[in-house]
Design brief:
63 residues; mainly beta; 3-stranded antiparallel β-sheet
Length: 63
């Protein structure tokens, strides 16, 4: 499974066949983590995390 989280957008792709996209707006101050839940034991390996730059960095606003 590949999961991409970017501020309010969560996208998950499973086995190259199924996908899920959702908008999430956490309102609690401690909403800073990710939890994986399943019907059976869930193993996450490997886990890779990247910090992304903004898409509009160094771009002058339109006039």
């Amino acid at each position: 499974m590949h999961t991409y989280i970017d501020r309010s957008v969560v996208e998950a792709y499973v086995n190259g066949e199924k996908s899920l996209t959702s908008r999430v707006y956490p309102t609690l101050a401690d909403a800073v983590g990710v939890r994986v839940i399943g019907d059976e034991i869930v193993k996450v390996k490997p886990l890779k995390i990247w910090n992304l730059d903004g898409a509009y960095r160094n771009v002058a606003p339109s006039q």
